[in-house]
Amino acid sequence: MFRVAVIEDDAPTSNQLVSWILSARKDIVVDQWFTRDDAEAAVQREHYDLVVLDIELGRERHAGVAIINAINKRQQGTPVLVVSAMPAAIYRSIMKALDAWDYLQKTTFEEADFIDTLLEILRATRDRERAPSAAPAGDELSIDPLRQSTPLWHGQRVNLPLTAQRILAALYARRGEVVSYDELFQVVKSGRNRDNIRKHISTIRDAFREFDEAFDRIENIPMRGFRWTDPR
User: Where is the signal peptide (predicted)?
Assistant: First the structure.
């Protein structure tokens, strides 16, 4: 049984999200909260497997940020999916810095996109509970599938959006082998073309180079795909 909180001040939108969640799985209990005060009290009181929230609640433009901070202070690893009308180009990077799982901008995604993301988060929650907590000894890169904050490179956090995280995981899982464009298309939801994959690869490289300027582990294999290479 999963427990999910939907924090959204617009009742029709809240009810729509709840209906999508319940249609995705029958073993989900959903709590609805409409104000910052009620939501903050709930996340302090309850253990949620997922929190779906809007950034703007009532007249508070950044109420959702305060709620995310309250969630993070509990250090329980609760994933947050942000669903907001705020411009994704501006707020996605902010939410990434706050360790949100993903950011969906209202009116730009469909029910299927929401449900795919929801189910992936819940599967990651289940898998993390079953998996050993420690990373394998000797691995330079440690990837926790649940939270974007937890890819670690030599112990340092690498912040990545969800799609880039999927691509990184696919490359690292098969390090030393070429992962073709066709195979990488299978881990992205949209933009299944080579230009888009190259943009995601660039995002990954830039994220690593923020603290490791010499990062060069992702090799471009012309006309084929990409390969994660370990040092010889």
Answer: none
| Cα angle 146, 151, 156; round to 5 | 140
The Cα–Cα gap between 151 and 73 comes to 19
The residue written with tokens 């202070």 in the block is 73
Residue at 135 is within a domain: no
3-state SS, residue 41: helix
State residue 141 phi and psi, 5-degree precision. Answer: -115, 130
Quote the tokens at residue 30. 């959903």
- Nearest-CA neighbor of 106 among 13, 4, 12? 13
> What single DSSP character describes residue 27?
S
pTM: 0.62
Domain presence at residue 17? yes
Q: What is the mean pLDDT of the chain?
A: 86
Question: Tell me: the pLDDT tens digits for 155-178?
Answer: 777 888 878 888 998 998 888 999
Q: Are residues 8 and 119 in the same domain?
A: yes
CA distances from 54 to 68, 123, 200, 224 (A): 10, 22, 26, 40
- Residue 143 φ/ψ, nearest 5 degrees: -120, 120
